[in-house]
Amino acid sequence: MKYVNSFIFVLILLINSCYTNEEETYNGTLRFEIEHQVQHVPLEVDNMIYTNAAGNQYEISEIQWFISDVSLVDTDGLIHSLSNSDWIHYIDTDLPETHSWTIMDGVKPGEYEMIKFVFGIKGERNAPIMFTDPPESNMIWPYFMGGDEGGYHYMKLNGFWEDKQSQRTPFNFHIGVGQIYDENARITGFIQNWFEVELPLSSFTMPAGGNVTAQIIMSIENWFKEPYKYNHNVFGGSIMDNQDAMGQIKANGKDVFTTVIK
Amino acid sequence: MGRIRFYIPVVFIGIAAYLGYLFFITKSLSPILTPYPIPQLKFFPKKLNIPESNPLTREGVKLGRYLFYDGRLSGSDNPDSLKSCASCHIQSLGFGSDIKVVAGKGYPCGVTKQGQDIHGKELHVTLPLTNLMHNTNGYFWNGFIHEQNSYEDEGIETDYRNLESIVWISIVSEEGLGADINRMQDLIGSDEIYKSLFKSAFGNEEITLGQITKAISQFIRTITASDFKFYHFMEGNAELSESEQRGYELFYSEKAGCFHCHASSMMMTTNQYYNNGKKPEYQENCDRYAVTLDPRDQGAYRAPSLINCAINGPYMHDGSYSTLEEVIEFYSEDIHNSELVDPLVKGLNEGGIHLNTQEKMDLVNFLHTLTDYTILSDTSYACPDTLGKFGVRQQR
Q: Which pTM was predicted?
C-alpha cells in the first residue's frame, strides 16, 4: 500500500509538471511599441518645424488615440484575434506608459504573414460612457454627434498651424463618428470613420516560448498627404462636425502606419 | 522514538494555543470596523483615490464628520473664534467657498519651486470638496498635491500626496485654522463624545493630529455630488428644456468646445491643466509651472469640475469673475492669444467664440442642470446636532 501511494504521488507530480511545461513553452510573447514620427524622425512636440503636403507649416502639441482589435494573419490566411481581454489600447504622447504593451494571452508559435488592427473603435464596440476612468474617458465624443455607436474620439491630434494671415492658429485634428446633416443643419444619421490597418512588411515567426516585438510607427505627415492633400486653411481648426474633413483623414490614414519587427 | 511521538502533538497543541492567544489579543485590541459602502455610480470613475493607509470605514467617516464641523479644531473654545473646515467649505455652496486662499509660510506652500517667497500672497479661490475620491490626478488648482510626490527625504512632516496632507496643512497653517495643536488636541479630548468616536474609528481614545486628519479625509471622500439633472438626462431618466438642450449641444459642440476640458464621463472635468487664454502674458506664483517647472505650463490651471458651478462662484483660479454670465462673456469676447494657450481653446485669433445673447443664456441654463440640490441639505453631510455650540454652521 505504501508503494502504491508513492507511485500515485510521483505520477501526479509528473503529469502536472508535463502540463505546466507545455503551457509555459507553447505561447510566445508579442509586445507592441508605438512611435510617432515625422519624416522618419521621432516627433518633436511644440515646435513649428513641420510642413504638410498642402504647404501648411505646423506643430504638434499632443496626440491621443485608440488602437483596437489587433489580429494576426497566418500563412494559411487564417485570422487570429489577439483581443480577448485586451482589445483596446489608449496611446498618448504625454504618457510614456501608454507607448507599449504586451499581448496578455501570448501568441501561438508559427509563421504569420501580417499584423492587422483597427484604427479607432468599431461602431458596435464604441458605446457611450463605456470608459469612466481617465485617460480613456477624456476621449469622450458628444452623444448627439455620435449616437449609440460613437462614444469616443478615435484620435485627438492637437497643434497649431500658420494660417493664411500668418497667425499661429490652433487645430484640433479630431476624428470619430461623422454626421449627416439635413438642409436645416439637423443630424439625420451617422458615418463610421474607423478603419482597418493591414501593416505592410509585418510578417514574423513566433518561436515556441519566444519573444517578438512589433514597433508600430505613425508617420504623422501621411495624415495630410495621400490621396488628399489635407489643408488646414480649407477645413479650419475644428472638424468634429465636418465629415468631408474626417473622410479625408480616414482615406489618408491607410498609409500612416508601418511596422518594424524586432 | 516513543518520546518523539509524544512530544510532536504536544508541540503542535502548544503552537496552536499560542496563535489562538495572539489572535484573541489582537481582536480585542482592534476596533470592529465596518467598511463604508461606496456608492456605485454608473458614470463616475471606478478607480478611487483612497490610500491603503486610510481605508473608508463607517466609524472613521462618522468621526470625520464631527471633526469637520468642530470649531475647536482651531485650538479655541471661545464662541467668537471657533473655526473648522466648515468655515470655508460650506454645505449650502456645495462644500465650495467664496473665500480666497493666501499662501502659508515656508516650503513648499509659501515658497515656489523657483525659490520665490510668496507667503501671504493671494493664491486662489477655494475649490469645492465634492467627488474628490474620484480624482486621481492631483489636488489644488495646480496639482501640487499628487500621489506621485516624494518629499520623504526632505524632512517634511507630511508627504503632500493626498487629501490627508491638505487637511494637515489646513489645520496647522496660520492661513488655515492656525491651530495650537496641543491645545486643539486637549479641547477635542475633553469632550466625552470623542472618546467613543476615536475608540470606534481607531481602537484608542488618543487624540492625535494624524488620526484627526485621517478621519476628516475619510469624511471628505464620501462627499459625492451626482444627483443633478444632466446626469439623469444621460441615464435617460430626465428631460432637458429646449434652452437647456441647446446649451448642452453648444457645450459639446466644436463652436464652444467646452467639453474637451470640462467633460470626461460625468465628472464634468478632465482634471487636466490648461492655459485658457485669460491673459496676454503670465507672471504667476502658483500655476502648473510652479509644480512642473515646464515653461509650457505657465498660466495653466486645473479645469475645475462644473458640477455645482451655478452655486459656488467666484470663478477662475483667481476668482476674477463673479457670475457664470461673466465667465461665458470671457470665452465669448475676451480670449487672449499667446504662445502658451492650449490648442483646445476656441476662437483664439478672434478674441473668443462670439456667442449671441440666446446662446449665452442657453449655456447658463445648461450649466444650471449640473447642480446637485440634494447635497446642499443632505443631513448625512450636515453638522451633527450633538456638537451643539461648537458646531460651525455657515450659511450663504
A: 0.89
